[in-house]
Sequence to fold (233 residues):
Amino acid sequence: MSKIYDTAEEALGGVLFDGMTIAAGGFGLCGIPELLIEALVKSGVGNLTVASNNCGVEDFGLGRLLSTHQIRKMISSYVGENAEFMRQYLSGELELEFSPQGTLAERMRAGGAGIPGFYTRTGVGTLVAEGKETHDFDGETYLLERGIVADLAIVKAWKADTAGNAIFRKTARNFNPPAAMCGRICVMEVEEIVPAGSLDPDHIHLPGIYVHRLVQGPHEKRIEQRTVREREV
Fold:
């Protein structure tokens, strides 16, 4: 069966339900699955738990789902750049689980690898450690972190073949591979789909076995913060 769908809405068809957990790739506005996020907004699915490094900005990326109050809980490592995120959290409208950045990436990877939990020193002695099991190894205390298995993973790649083998371009190769791995269903949007076998196997960042559905489309690629200097004359 073909993994390719004509639109983001079709690619998400039959997999959405209220209260589901979604793992989303990207960092800020870099490498985000913007087409799939917009399709989620249009679907009206709600009460979502979203595991992602952050929540975009107020009017783009995952911030679109915040503005429509479709997200109940965020599992994130960074909450900057989005005033609405801060407002909803401080007002009690949004539940937030802080997860250190490397820990969050490993929780996704572990979930995809069938590893239910792992120990790490990151977060010991901080708020991150509250309520978590600890164990001492070689005289050091470690936290037990649970792997994340999401109902759905939405990710963005630069190029993929028809089998779903994917390449991520530069910084966009951030949370996308581990997010894709941990989804029971992974839907990937790409800039270009090429025939199977046309990509160098040594250049593949994510094997197609993790990818269930593909959609190709145009991307806006906003710049989160633009910093310039005056031109020297």
